[in-house]
């Protein structure tokens, strides 16, 4: 049981850390760079990124962070580790809900506008997407996932102290 507990906690920490990196990179680099581009470049690049990100590596991290953290919470022994893992789980559930409820529908709406060379008014499509709203909610994901990662890191420290 010890090996399963430690493996679940390490997997939760690693996948959550990967997701904090993904959301953070979008926050401080991808959206900033795209924000400085013209409408055609923004729409085309965002659509391409959104299609490309749906891949096994991303899905293992995105879903794995939730699954491994839940498993780790279920398997966590004692009162010293469990609060940190539960805090991480609650934070990541918020991230998951924001992603599914806000960011993904916005992504899908921009993809539904069509290919950039077939959109009659790219400025309107970009404005309808609402970069500021997308980025504000991504900041919530970035901060919450980073905090969840920190909680899981601390749970590993506590786990190490327990032997």
Summarize the structure.
It is built from six helices and no strands. Keywords: Membrane, Transmembrane, Transmembrane helix.
Observed structural traits:
163 residues; 6 helices; elongated; membrane
What can you tell me about this protein's structure?
- The relative contact order is 0.19.
- The protein is built from 6 helices and no strands.
- It has one domain (2-162).
- The protein has 163 residues and is mostly helical.
What is the domain total for the residues? 1
Largest beta sheet, briefly? none
Outline, from the CA principal axes?
A: elongated
**Unreliable spans:** none
> SSE string, helix = H, strand = E?
HHHHHH
Give the helix/strand class: mainly alpha
Round the Cα radius of gyration to an integer and report it. 18 Å
The mean pLDDT is 96
Annotation, overall tally of beta strands: 0
Distance between the termini: 14 Å
Give the count of helical stretches.
6
Proportion of β residues? under 5%
Helix content: over 70%
Set out the fold topology.
Blueprint: H1 2-35, H2 39-53, H3 56-75, H4 78-112, H5 122-129, H6 131-162
Helix pairs in contact: 1-3, 1-6, 2-5, 3-4, 4-5, 4-6
